[in-house]
Amino acid sequence: MxxxxxxxxxxxxxxxxxIHGGRWxxxxxxxxxxxxxxxxxxxxxxxxxxxxxxxxxxxxFPKRFYRWMTPVTLKEEDLVINxxxxxxxxxxxxxxxxxxxxxxxxxxxxxxxxxxxxxxxPHAFSGLRNLPPSEDMKHAFLRGLIPTDFDSRSHEVDxxxxxxxxEEYAPFKQGYDLLGDESIIGVELPGHAxxxxxxxxxxxxxxxxFFVADAAWLKQxxxxxxxxxxxxxxxxxxxxxxxxxxxNLHSHYLTHPDTIIVPSHCDETIKALRNPKVK
Length: 279
Ligand SMILES: [Zn+2]
Hints:
279 residues, alpha/beta, Metallo-beta-lactamase, Chain A, 7-stranded mixed β-sheet
């Protein structure tokens, strides 16, 4: 599998919120997405980052508050579809979109991907869809980003069929074989959002990538087992599970130093991994 780490825009946020003991300065939070080019199933992506729809959806109060909290920078060339074009890919070439969770900065380009199947853990969306719209903000959810034919293109992960994982994924013991060929393994990373899904994917040279979405905002949090500022717990549906997940990531980091762990918003990690483009 060819793997390219990219990002569609970024927002800014205070470092001392992103990590306990962080400095009083503003840092960039890239909105990562990954292009996964499977030898048999073709090109797929993990998450989508921002799109201009984020601005459309946050024009009015109270959703405008979302924009103020996380000011977004997005250029034309950053749009997912424009970046795919640089690889010679059209939206209709993308067979699957793996959705880590439904926060707006991970799904804003779903409406541009009119031909893809959407793969996600069922409980990541089931709670949100039935919320009264007045509660969307509390969950960083912008329902206008969900395509109208979302249900008919959804392929929810079958949670009744977990696979036992080998030691190379420890301490994660259970995952989901998302394509049936063991090439992409989804794991639950609870705490930050309901049903958050991380992916283990191996690239063509055998390197194991672990996309951990927002289970940690910064790689440093995983390296040092250091959570965000306590105030961030207000954003998390299950702060205790968040802490446990972070502990598991830290443990994997210690015992599997060769795994390339990719938190979606870690500027240092994303900058280091943005591959030279494959034309
Ligand atoms: Zn999130």
